[in-house]
Amino acid sequence: MRLRAASFCAALLCAVTALPAAAGGLIRLTDRDDLFGWEAVGRLELGAAGYCTGSLIAPALVLTAAHCVYDKSHAPIAAEAMTFRAGLRDGEFISQSGVAQVVAHPGYAPGATLTGEMVRHDVALLKLADPIPSAVAGPFALAGAGRAGARVSVVSYGRGRDAALSWQRDCGIIAMNRGVMQFDCDVTFGSSGAPVFMRAAGGNARIVSLISSGGQDAAYGMELPGIVADLKQAMRAAKRITTAAPRRVQVGQGGGGIGAKFQKP
């Protein structure tokens, strides 16, 4: 059902106590075979700031939440402090790369009150220092607009389960309001930036949203097509690119993050 309450808080953020429990359990993607098809989801290491979840939408582009790319003082984290590890599981990864450029949507204000407007723009795009070939980790396409009642799945890292990806293969979009989606998916610290997938015709998983925040039995994300188009344009228009040394390595050992990032409404 599409909510029509006058305020975003009344319509969406403050409704968490009335929600059902998440519809599907978590599956740990432990083995290489379990990871097949999800290799482009990885852990974004943020130096001393901890980690988030990110996903490839092109060989050199990673999509994550905007709040992930700021530190506790709300200052931007340097690109060279970041590393994306695709398919990280139990210390091994499919591939990794440093980050050359970071663009967070200007509509997101770090440190501001977490409103619908902040969730709607909580998206960042990262350009990798060295692209990860599609044959190694196939990037995901974006889905069109989501719809209330649609079934989705989430692939993420999280506090207490950050050594490997967890897949919740069945949860749902339970409400939509002004470009913001509400899910009954199981998320926690570290799930920030995690892709929310819908199945397209032919069974291919496409990213319909990212996890921005959550609490109790609710999670929140945003519609993506327009936001991502804005970020790509901003990245092309940027005059300066902070270059990090290429760090891509095939199927190697990964380090541990310091802390998982998350927002709670």
Can you offer a commentary on this structure?
By secondary structure, this protein is mainly β. It has one domain (8-240): Trypsin-like serine proteases (Thrombin, subunit H, Beta Barrel). 10% of the residues lie in helices and 32% in strands. The protein has four helices and 16 strands. It has helices at residues 8-11, 32-35, 116-120, 225-237, and strands at 26-28, 41-45, 51-58, 61-64, 83-86, 92-93, 95-104, 124-128, 151-156, 166-177, 180-183, 195-199, 205-210, 213-215, 218-222, 252-253. The strands form three sheets. Strands 1, 9, 10, 11, 12, 13, 14 and 15 form an eight-stranded antiparallel sheet that branches. Strands 2-3-4-8-7-5 form a six-stranded antiparallel β-barrel. Strands 6-16 form a two-stranded antiparallel ribbon. Strand 3 (51-58) and strand 4 (61-64) form a beta hairpin. The chain is globular. Residues 1-24 and 239-258 have low confidence and may be disordered. Belongs to the peptidase S1B family. This is Serine protease.
Helix content: under 10%
- Could you state the order of secondary-structure elements as H and E? HEHEEEEEEHEEEEEEEEHE
- Total helices: the number is 4
CATH superfamily: Trypsin-like serine proteases
Q: Can you give the mean pLDDT?
A: 81
Q: Could you give the count of β-strands?
A: 16
CA gyration radius, whole angstroms: 17 Å
Q: Which CATH class is shown?
A: Mainly Beta
Unreliable runs, pLDDT <50, ≥5 residues?
A: 1-24, 239-258
For the record, the CATH architecture stands as Beta Barrel
Instruction: Tell me about the largest β-sheet.
Output: 8 strands, antiparallel
In what range is the share of β-strand residues? 25-35%
Amino- and carboxy-terminal Cα gap: 21 Å
CATH topology: Thrombin, subunit H
Give the total of domains: 1
Structural class: mainly beta
The 3D shape can be described as: globular
Signal peptide: 1-23
GO biological process, one term: proteolysis
EC number: 3.4.21.-
Enzyme class: hydrolase
